[in-house]
């Protein structure tokens, strides 16, 4: 079966929906399709809690937002992209406001902003602590009013069709029926989100398996800065559920086992009763997660069956602040941890949260492969560099989703030729491969769950918050072994209707690719920067590594210099 | 406790199209741990006992709305329902009621997805939006806030006997979402939504069973939204009747 | 796609108290209709004069008619109580707590009933 569209957007999260509406507005005559493995409103954007940063307050400026972002990213940041980002973020958030997003308000009816880690000014817009939920549902419901956007809900993309250096569509499986379809398109925008599930302990939903990164990689696009994996300092043990940074922005404290605000020992400032911006608990995520590891080494964390923890103390905020500003946190704590943060300490530990790296794109979301665009967490422009600041991702989805949409619309306008027959043949080959996967995987000796678990522990041990040459080498060897074992993996389910085991198999295939890219890039970068901390190379090395790593599908890694416009590399200073 | 690992029996409804004529119940023993949600039990089955079991899940934090199931007869989010609450068991896990079953615990919600756009769940504003933000006080936001909390989990449809008997019924969540925009101070679309909301398949199909609001995990109170709209619809129908055209609204 | 249509059990309305009430309310329409018929019969009897009116009263006094009317009254009360229960959610008055709306309804009911009693027993 074959379908045709001008542009296919893979992914219906914040980035995908924004890209699709941008296309529809740029050129209403284009046929746009959104292909998503879950219903769009179930995409992971729904889980974002804390907020979205954009300059709106009178005492704030675009330059300050840009500087916070560049220094937060430890200068591994494309500064021209950051300038575009901070300029367009307010417009995008206002646009959402005009579409009905219930942003939290000041008493006089204007938008309210809150503090966030690593930001020198209060500039994070929020919808209580369900920002991503409201943002996604507003985008999705607004998209329903665009009747021309075709949706493939619960369709899983397995391959990008690539021919003569350009992308010409995708192959996708309809989950409900198992039908495999070749969807031809003049351009494809990949918006599939991150890959936290490569690690064992993550805030990321089950669907965040890095599919789009692997798809683009296989189609010839390099991945950029894959070694930069963000650990969020405050996840609930066992589930990995995120306790948003907004808890600390509202004044929460991190305490070690002695009830001591240990961040003061790590060059993050002096403890004060009221929160101070860019200081202590409002330091950047990489530094806070690293401080946890040091506390653990000093024996000052608390042991639990789910690993070491410290405490997040919100009790002094009182029930009123918690219920108005952080109601979801209270709900999550009581439902999933059986704890009431109004009266009790919340156990937390660092947890894999966000992928700074991703598909290499330019400032318009274009990859080096013709007709292939990427936006959102799956892409790496890069505005996040070596460490993303909290609340920069949601506006990034919108700004670069819209840019990629417009650029793709422009690209197909200028396109003269359609795909060659080789593209259709590729679609048929892929269909054959998928049928074969279903059929042949009967007598294997390995279970996919076992391989997945081993991959995750390998990544945690080899490429966690702190890494070194040795741990990374071991991880590389282990991943190689897992790749071989994957070929012998069997599945129990050979039916076509809603075969989630087949999907898990395809996702594991993607994740193994991603894991190998992360380890390869981390091994080459012999310095410490932002979220990439090498115990054997503890210093930042601008001379050799003020450059993005680009890993190709062949395994080759090369470096691309960073674009610097106005902010030369400096020291990252917090709390002083 | 260490040497006698506790387990609980999960009785899961299976349906494999083409293979099973009708759903069958299959029992599995899973570890009973205090942090484990029903969803963790299912994941244990999928990973270690039987890879063929199919169900939806994603966020496992009660916000994506994927994991609705019938647990011991009640519609629940399986990621927010704990196994220990059903100890010593067995726990019965069935698909959400009132929807066709695609496979095992996966139901077909396309009926809702088709109804949702009918209530025009997007902001309709006459004229250009302001340069900056629309002003909206916290009190104005409170008017619609709870109706904006819907995660589309379908538990309310599963609990609603009217929907079971009259599949035409727009249903609790769709109506609540229409009301969410009607009550938003920035919106002028109430008139556009009226034909659908005030139709026989709209609010008037509801006879206030109230189970939707009981089932809702997010405090949306769809039953309240429906009752409130009944009054609105009745009043505007009356106005249409009594007032000359110019004086309406 | 061969989706399985889940059958609705014949006794689904016994599974939950709220479902039973729902079915009772649906059923009550028959009795409400009966009240209308009864009222029309009353009106026609009154308009026909003293004799037919007295016959009507005598007929109404029979056991089965009495029982029927008591049952019908119970159903109409069920309706009234249901409406009252939902009134606070249908009528949202700014700055007035929901319970006030509820109490106001019951108060209005009491006042009207007292009025009727006064007219009848006067
Ligand atoms: C718990 C949590 C809290 C967060 N809080 C914040 C915050 O407060 N502020 C902030 O700025 N950022 C926050 N983030 C980060 C931010 O939410 C994410 O980076 C962002 O939502 C990613 O959006 P996306 O559109 O790129 O992808 P997603 O929303 O993840 O969407 C991915 C889409 O791709 C589809 N897809 C994936 N693979 C396939 C495939 N093979 N075939 C078809 N479709 C596919 C999926 O169905 C989905 O629709 C948070 C992240 C987490 C995990
Ligand atoms: S109204 Fe409540 S129960 Fe119904 S779909 Fe929305 S969140 Fe789920
Ligand atoms: S898994 Fe998302 S709501 Fe349960």
Automatic annotation (TrEMBL), chain A:
Residues 452-574 form the Fumarate reductase/succinate dehydrogenase flavoprotein-like C-terminal domain. The active site is at 285 (proton acceptor). It catalyses: a quinone + succinate = fumarate + a quinol; a menaquinone + succinate = a menaquinol + fumarate. FAD binds at residues 11-16, 36-51, 211, 377, 388, 393-394. It is found in: Cell membrane. Residues 7-394 form the FAD-dependent oxidoreductase 2 FAD-binding domain. It comes from the Bacteria. The keyword Transmembrane does not apply. GO terms for molecular function: electron transfer activity; flavin adenine dinucleotide binding; steroid dehydrogenase activity, acting on the CH-CH group of donors; succinate dehydrogenase (quinone) activity. Substrate binds at residues 232, 244, 353. Pfam families: FAD_binding_2 (PF00890), Succ_DH_flav_C (PF02910). Its EC number is 1.3.5.1. Its cofactor is FAD. GO terms for cellular component: plasma membrane. Its main location: membrane. Keywords: Cell membrane, Electron transport, FAD, Flavoprotein, Membrane, Nucleotide-binding, Oxidoreductase, Transport. One of its GO terms (biological process) is anaerobic respiration. PANTHER family: FUMARATE REDUCTASE FLAVOPROTEIN SUBUNIT, SUCCINATE DEHYDROGENASE 2 FLAVOPROTEIN SUBUNIT. Belongs to the FAD-dependent oxidoreductase 2 family. FRD/SDH subfamily. NCBIfam families: fum_red_Fp, PRK09231.1, sdhA_frdA_Gneg. Part of an enzyme complex containing four subunits: a flavoprotein (FrdA), an iron-sulfur protein (FrdB), and two hydrophobic anchor proteins (FrdC and FrdD). This is Fumarate reductase flavoprotein subunit. It comes from Lentzea tibetensis.
TrEMBL record, chain B:
Signal peptide: none annotated. It catalyses: a menaquinone + succinate = a menaquinol + fumarate. Its EC number is 1.3.5.1. Keywords: 2Fe-2S, 3Fe-4S, 4Fe-4S, Iron, Iron-sulfur, Metal-binding, Oxidoreductase, Tricarboxylic acid cycle. Its cofactor is [3Fe-4S] cluster; [4Fe-4S] cluster; [2Fe-2S] cluster. The keyword Nuclease does not apply. Pathway: Carbohydrate metabolism; tricarboxylic acid cycle. Residues 141-170 form the 4Fe-4S ferredoxin-type domain. InterPro entries: 2Fe-2S_ferredoxin-like_sf, 2Fe-2S_ferredoxin-type, 2Fe2S_fd_BS, 4Fe4S_Fe-S-bd, 4Fe4S_Fe_S_CS, Beta-grasp_dom_sf, Helical_ferredxn, SDH/FRD_Iron-Sulfur. Belongs to the succinate dehydrogenase/fumarate reductase iron-sulfur protein family. This is Fumarate reductase iron-sulfur subunit. It comes from Lentzea tibetensis. The lineage of its organism: Bacteria, Bacillati, Actinomycetota, Actinomycetes, Pseudonocardiales. The gene is sdhB.
TrEMBL record, chain C:
InterPro entries: Fumarate_red_C, SQR/QFR_C/D. The chain crosses the membrane at residues 20-43, 64-87, 99-121. The keyword rRNA-binding does not apply. Keywords: Cell membrane, Membrane, Transmembrane, Transmembrane helix. It comes from the Bacteria. GO terms for cellular component: membrane. This is Fumarate reductase subunit C. It comes from Lentzea tibetensis. The lineage of its organism: Bacteria, Bacillati, Actinomycetota, Actinomycetes, Pseudonocardiales.
């Amino acid at each position: 079966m074959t379908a045709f569209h001008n542009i296919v957007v893979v992914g219906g999260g914040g980035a995908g929906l924004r890209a699709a509406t941008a296309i529809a507005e740029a050129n209403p005559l284009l046929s746009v399709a959104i292909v998503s493995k879950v219903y769009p409103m179930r995409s992971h954007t729904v889980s974002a809690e804390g907020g979205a940063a954009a300059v709106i307050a009178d005492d704030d400026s675009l330059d300050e937002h840009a500087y916070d972002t560049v220094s937060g990213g430890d200068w591994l940041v494309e500064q021209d992209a950051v300038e575009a980002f901070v300029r367009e973020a307010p417009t995008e958030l206002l646009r959402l406001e005009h579409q009905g997003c219930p942003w939290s308000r000041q008493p006089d009816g204007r938008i309210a902003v809150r503090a966030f880690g690593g930001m020198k000014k209060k500039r994070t817009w929020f919808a209580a602590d369900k920002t991503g939920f409201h943002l996604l549902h507003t985008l999705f419901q607004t998209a329903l009013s665009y009747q021309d956007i075709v949706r493939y809900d619960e369709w899983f993309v397995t391959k990008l069709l690539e021919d003569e250096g350009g992308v010409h569509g995708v192959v996708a499986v309809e989950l409900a029926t198992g039908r495999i379809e070749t969807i031809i398109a003049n351009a494809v925008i990949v918006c599939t989100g991150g890959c936290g599930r490569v690690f064992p302990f993550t805030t990321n939903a089950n669907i965040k398996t890095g599919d789009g990164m692997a798809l683009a990689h296989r189609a010839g696009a390099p991945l950029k800065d894959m070694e930069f994996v963000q650990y969020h300092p405050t996840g609930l043990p066992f589930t990995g559920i995120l306790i948003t940074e907004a808890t600390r922005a509202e004044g929460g404290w991190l305490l070690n086992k002695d009830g001591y605000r240990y961040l003061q020992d790590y060059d993050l400032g002096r403890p004060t009763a009221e929160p101070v911006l860019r200081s202590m608990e409002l330091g950047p995520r990489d530094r806070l997660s690293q401080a946890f590891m040091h506390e653990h080494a000093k024996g000052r964390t608390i042991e639990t069956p789910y690993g070491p923890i410290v405490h997040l103390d919100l009790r002094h905020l009182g029930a009123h602040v918690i219920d108005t500003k952080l109601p979801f946190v209270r709900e999550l704590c009581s439902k999933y941890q059986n704890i009431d943060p109004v009266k009790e300490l919340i156990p937390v530990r660092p947890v894999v949260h966000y992928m700074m790296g991703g598909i290499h794109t330019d400032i318009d979301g274009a990859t080096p492969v013709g007709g292939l665009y990427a936006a959102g967490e799956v892409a790496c422009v890069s505005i996040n560099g070596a460490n993303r600041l909290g609340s920069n991702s949601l506006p990034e989805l919108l700004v670069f989703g819209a840019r990629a949409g417009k650029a793709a619309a422009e690209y197909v306008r200028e396109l003269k030729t359609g795909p060659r027959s080789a593209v259709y043949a590729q679609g048929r080959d892929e269909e054959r491969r998928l049928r074969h996967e279903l059929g042949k995987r009967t007598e294997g000796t390995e279970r996919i769950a076992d391989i997945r678990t081993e991959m995750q522990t390998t990544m945690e041990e080899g490429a966690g918050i702190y890494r070194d040459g040795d741990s990374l080498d071991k991880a590389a060897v282990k991943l190689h072994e897992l790749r071989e074992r994957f070929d012998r993996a069997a599945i129990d389910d050979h039916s076509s209707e809603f075969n989630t085991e087949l999907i898990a198999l395809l996702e594991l295939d993607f994740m193994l690719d991603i894991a190998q890219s992360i380890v390869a890039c981390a091994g080459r970068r012999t310095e410490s920067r932002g979220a990439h901390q090498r115990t054997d190379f503890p210093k930042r090395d601008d001379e050799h590594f003020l450059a993005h790593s680009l890993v190709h599908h062949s395994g080759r890694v090369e470096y691309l210099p960073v674009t610097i416009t106005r902010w030369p590399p400096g020291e990252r200073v917090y709390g002083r | 406790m260490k040497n006698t690992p506790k387990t609980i029996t999960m009785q899961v409804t299976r349906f494999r199209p083409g293979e099973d004529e009708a759903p069958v119940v299959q029992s599995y023993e899973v570890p009973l741990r205090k942090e484990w949600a029903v969803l963790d039990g299912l994941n244990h089955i999928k990973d270690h006992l039987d890879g063929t079991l199919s169900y939806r899940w994603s966020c496992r934090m009660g916000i994506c709305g994927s994991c609705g199931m019938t647990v011991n007869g009640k519609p629940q989010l399986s990621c927010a329902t704990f196994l220990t609450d059903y100890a010593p068991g067995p726990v019965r896990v069935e698909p959400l009621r009132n929807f066709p079953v695609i496979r095992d615990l996966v139901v077909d919600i396309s009926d809702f997805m088709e109804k949702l756009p009918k209530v025009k769940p997007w902001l309709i504003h006459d004229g250009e939006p302001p340069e900056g933000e629309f002003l909206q006080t916290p009190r104005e936001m409170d008017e619609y806030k709870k109706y904006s909390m819907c995660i589309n989990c379908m538990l309310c449809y599963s609990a609603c006997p009217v929907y079971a008997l009259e599949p035409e019924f727009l249903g609790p969540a769709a109506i609540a979402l229409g009301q969410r925009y009607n009550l938003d101070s920035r919106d002028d679309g109430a008139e556009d939504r009226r034909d659908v909301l005030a139709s026989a398949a709209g609010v008037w199909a509801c006879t206030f069973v109230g189970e939707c609001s009981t089932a809702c995990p997010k405090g949306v109170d769809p039953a309240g939204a429906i009752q409130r709209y009944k009054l609105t619809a009745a009043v505007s129908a009356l106005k249409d009747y009594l007032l000359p055209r110019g004086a309406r609204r | 796609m061969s989706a399985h249509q889940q059958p609705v059990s014949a006794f689904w309305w016994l599974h939950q108290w709220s479902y039973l009430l729902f079915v009772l309310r649906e059923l009550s329409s028959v009795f409400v209709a009966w009240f209308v018929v009864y009222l029309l019969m009353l009106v026609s009897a009154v308009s026909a004069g003293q004799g037919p009116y007295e016959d009507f009263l005598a007929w109404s006094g029979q056991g089965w008619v009495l029982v029927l009317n008591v049952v019908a009254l119970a159903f109409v009360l069920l309706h009234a109580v249901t409406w009252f229960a939902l009134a606070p959610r249908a009528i949202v008055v700014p700055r007035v707590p929901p319970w006030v709306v509820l109490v106001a309804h019951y108060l209005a009911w009491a006042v009207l009933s007292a009025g009727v009693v006064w007219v009848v027993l006067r």
